[in-house]
Amino acid sequence: MFKPHLDKYGTEFPHWESAVARFKAAHNQSEVARSIGTQPQLWINKLSPEQNGEPTIKNVIAAARVTGDHSLVHGLLLELDMAGIALPKSNHKGNELPLTSQALEITATAGELARDAIGAQQAGRVCQQRRDNAVSKATAMMGALALFVHNVESRFHAIPGMTVAMDTLTTSAVPGIS
Questions:
Q1: How many CB atoms within 10 Å of residue 14?
Q2: Are 24 and 43 in contact, with CB atoms under 8 Å apart?
């Protein structure tokens, strides 16, 4: 029976399965299980495609919190054609790094992704490790870009006169400014 939600390899949830594989490779699952308050073998079985069990949403959240690794959450969101980023926990304060440094870091990551894409195109295929690396870089870049927007907003909201000045400059008819 044809299932329209299967990918070209017949995988029902390719983003989730890839995220689980990355998470399993990056962490000692027995330690993760103990940290989230579950039995190690039960947790390992929940992450195994050969087993019938699945981690609960609470398990996924707890694992992300104790490891700081949001791969599982990103895998879930990608299955829904969505993406998420970690928000700053700084009470709406922006990153102290200069905006130019943040922009350069985002641009450098975009350049790395472009280089990887060119390499993949020339090779004609992408191995699992390169794919996972590209997904990790792109996800990190999306997060950095969203935080950049947050930082721009927090810095310029704090200085209303600066916001007005920037708006005036960007909408002016002065050649080379707009």
A1: 16
A2: no
pTM: 0.60
Q: CA 39 to CA 46: how far, in whole Å? A: 11
Number of other residues whose CB lies within 10 A of the CB of residue 120? 15
pLDDT in tens, 37-85: 999 999 999 999 888 889 999 999 999 999 999 999 999 998 998 887 7
33 contacts: CB under 8 Å, gap ≥ 6? 39, 40, 42, 43, 44
- Nearest CA-CA partner of 145 in 89, 93, 104: 104
Enter the tokens of residue 142. 């999306």
